[in-house]
Amino acid sequence: MTPILDIRQLCKRYGSHTAVDGISFSIPPGICFGLLGPNGAGKTTTIEMIEGMTRPSSGEILYKGAAPSRHFREECGIQFQHTALMDYLNVREVLALFARLYQKTVPLDQLITQCQLEDFLEQRATRISGGQRQRLLLALALVNDPAIVFLDEPTTGLDPQSRRQFWTLIRRIREAGKTVILTTHYMDEAEQLCDDLVIMDHGRIIDQGSPQALLKKHFQHVRVCIHRHDFNITPAQLGEPVIETATDIEILSVSIDRTIDTLRQHDVPLSTLRVRNPTLDDLFLKLTGHSLQEGDSA
Amino acid sequence: MKRFLAMLHARNLEFVRDRAALVWALMFPALMIIGCAMIFSNGNQRILSAGYLGTHQHTAQAFFPALPDGSMEWLAYSDPTLAINRIRYHQLDILLDPENQRYWVNPESSRGRIAEQLLHATGPLTLQRQAIAGRAVRYVDWALPGILGMNMMFASLFGVGYVVVRYRMNGVLKRLRATPTNAFEFLASQILSRLTVIIAASAIIFIGCNWALDFLMLGSYLDLLVVGMLGGMAMISLGLVISSRTDSEEFAGGMLNLCTWPMMFLSEVWFSLDNAPAYVRAFAETLPLTHLVAGARRIMLEGATLTDISHHVIALIITTVVLMTLASLLFRWQRD
Questions:
Q1: Which residues, including other chains, have CB under 8 Å from residue B151's CB and lie 6 or more apart?
Q2: Contact with chain B for residue A86, Cβ under 8 A
Q3: Which residue, B302, B138, B328, is CA-closest to B220?
Q4: Helix (H, G, I), strand (E, B) or coil at A77
Q5: How far is the alpha carbon of B258 from chain A, nearest alpha carbon, in Å?
Q6: CA distance B135 to A116
């Protein structure tokens, strides 16, 4: 199957700074594809080059096997990380305005229901809450019934309830057969939504695959966590590698049964014991030596 | 066309709903005009003014030997038609042509009659009297085209310049760029929206103030509309050039002020440049507001047609084409 997007050796340089450094990947149609990485990793620059908003320094972008034509704008929907809307227009008017900018559009009533905009249609678009605003921006990205939808950190700054509400919307878009390209620095978001993803850091791809495949590839163990005060033996007595965190000892266990047996043999209290599967954040830490959240604050 | 109309409609809605801007756009020039009418309604504020054809003021001044220096304002004219029109509309009290032994006066002007009596006070005259008739042009009649033109200038430059820069700063332009909309459609919608607004506002102000002050209007309203639209287009184009690249409101504000202040003082909005140095008048000729105001003023006060003021019309068209081309070449949707 021809990929809907084929990215080859894409580079973006600003003076001496290289924001994106020769990345390549392909995206099959109909999936949710993620660009995961901390702020400054090059995700937004990459997605904006694919959208045609930023000119690449070098490299090639193929849409359905060819360089994007002028018609590409009719077939894609874009939600930017930072966007303001026109002053003094209400939500319904903003939707109607953007609908008239495209040749083909979905019925606005359908879009309003799909993105749950009913309750604030008559409010000024500049005076709605963060979650409502993100849903409106998503509706604008979908107004032309696009084949491919670009979402640049769509849930950043939203409360947990709004984020989960937004995830449901994204799942429905993918279920409708559209290709979704998503950038995020939330590992849980990537795990929940993405069928395939690339992990980026400092403008480069450091690994690529489905979340499950990546975790399976890099982690053969689960993490058995015990509060530091209860862990009254040495790692050598345990016979398995451990990671010390501020509050816990995390045992990298290949067999949970064997680890628990060993702990019992040494009379380690198990009241604080928790079992945790590795996450993409753990993977990022393993691959780069720093976590996604550290990258954020950098 | 659908995209252009959609953006035009959206921009118009924005303007109409921005109550503060709307009220200001209508109230400011109306207050200026009414203020002018009140302040300058007393005709005794200026001394008598006399014009002369030729270059020798002392020859003309010799016809008023009893008058002390400074009691009469002397103005030189090289164009007899212009000078006679000044007499016709009471802007000049008397005009002397010593070389051809003639003088012009408007008997309907009380100040003209006083000047004529002073001329006769010295004894029998050798100058031949030429009577010119015409309704007085009050200062408010003279100032109206300037005030309306100035308002159009501010509304065009700031109305377009600030909006485009703000749209660029907050990402509205970037969002529009992500649609099939092209720069031409966007710029054209901004131009037409703003042009509609300034022409409508100017028309409302004109009609309202005319009802109260009964302006002198000798020319065609259609010609006046054409000049107003051409002037508005030229000014909007200038605003688009200024806002074509910058994403700083402070910088745009500075540039807009840099353009508006010289026009306000050198485009004959408030006072005539008849006696200004040649280089000042030459510079004023490069300003679009000069041509807008001069064209509108000649239509209103002299009944000129578009053919009569063709050089102003051509200047405004050239200005619009050059600036619009420049704006479209320089325009960028988003900051780098």
A1: B25, B28, B29, B32, B198, B201, B202, B205
A2: yes
A3: B302
A4: strand
A5: 27
A6: 68
Q: Which chain A residues touch B17 with a CB distance below 8 Å?
A: 88
Rounded distance, CA A32 to CA A5, Å? 12
CB-based contact (8 Å) between A298 and chain B? no
pTM of the model: 0.73
Here the tokens at position A19 are 């924001």
Of B53-57, B73-77, B131-135, highest mean pLDDT: B73-77
- Total residue count of chain A as it appears in this document: 298
Please name which of B326, B325, B259 lies closest in space to residue B286, comparing C-alpha atoms: B259
- Find chain B residues with C-beta within 8 A of A139's C-beta: none
Query: What does the pLDDT look like over B174-185, one tens digit per residue?
Result: 899 889 988 888
Q: Are A57 and A11 in contact (CB under 8 A)?
A: yes
Between helix B139-170 and helix B221-242 the angle, nearest 10°, is 40
| Nearest chain B alpha carbon to A149 | B178
Q: How confident is the model at residue A291 (pLDDT cuts 50, 70, 90)?
A: low
Distance CA B124, CA A15 (A): 86
At residue B42, the pLDDT reads: 56
Q: Rounded to whole angstroms, what are the CA distances from A103 to A36, A75, A158, B53, B177?
A: 33, 10, 32, 67, 15
Residue contact B175–A88, C-beta within 8 A:
no
How many whole angstroms separate alpha carbon B286 and alpha carbon B319? Answer: 9
